[in-house]
Amino acid sequence: MNTDTEDKKVQLVEHRKEQILAAAKSIFAQNGFRCTKVDQIAGALQVGKGTIYRYFQDKKSLFLTVFEEGIGRLRQTIRADVEPIIEPQRKVAAAVKTFFEFFESDRELLEIMMQVRSEFKDDYRRVFLATYSDYIVKMQEDLRAGMRSGIFRQLDVEKTAEAISATLQGVLQSFYIREFGPETAMSRTDEESSADYDSIKTKNELGRPGQKRELLTDNIGAVTSLLLEGLLKRDGRQVSK
């Protein structure tokens, strides 16, 4: 087998894997892990169930791969959009903006992330900590750079980085609770559960009928202002303890 043929084969394999992950993400997001059948994902792609198992060991493996692929894209986006920025205050602002814009543009991943946390706590912790530790270290470095340049006041770097991360995660979770509502996969009809994934994706993007669609990005200004400016007026007075 020549090199060109091998390259084409690799490309075809990667393309098929991407198709499976895309279909699986939409169906998992709509139906939930427990109510999703591998047959549904195969049917959406018009392939046999054996094709799915050729790429993924089982439903759990496919589900977690969807999650890990999404978190990997988040890390890549932050590296591309935030890390090249030099000025500390602009870097913090860019990190907030990038974080919220990423999940607003991929609400299905937000749903998947919450499902993983509920269904597979150990796997969620493993993936989250790998991403979180890298993110926290970089944030601490940025805070120290801001302190050295005189832009940021003297801070407890470790605790401040933790607080910033907790703020972003808290806003994300609060948004999820409000926007995604109490509907669960168990309450959906069989007809809804077997819907093709293009229809599911459209429904997820439009949100619930009759409700004004809240945007995660609506939080960018308030969170950025809180992190960079704080709550107190800059009048030279000390905070009461």
Would you kindly provide a written description of the structure presented here, covering whatever features stand out?
With 241 residues, the protein is an all-alpha fold. The model is unreliable at 184-195 (pLDDT under 50). Helices cover 72% and strands 0% of the residues. It is built from eleven helices and no strands. It has a single domain (3-182), classed as Orthogonal Bundle (Tetracycline Repressor, domain 2). The protein is elongated and about 65 Å long. It starts with a helix and ends in a 12-residue tail after the last helix.
CATH class: Mainly Alpha
Give the CATH architecture. Orthogonal Bundle
In CATH terms, what is the fold-level topology?
Tetracycline Repressor, domain 2
Structural class: mainly alpha
The beta-strand count equals 0
Offer a few descriptive terms.
single chain; 241 residues; mainly alpha; Tetracycline Repressor, domain 2; 11 helices; elongated
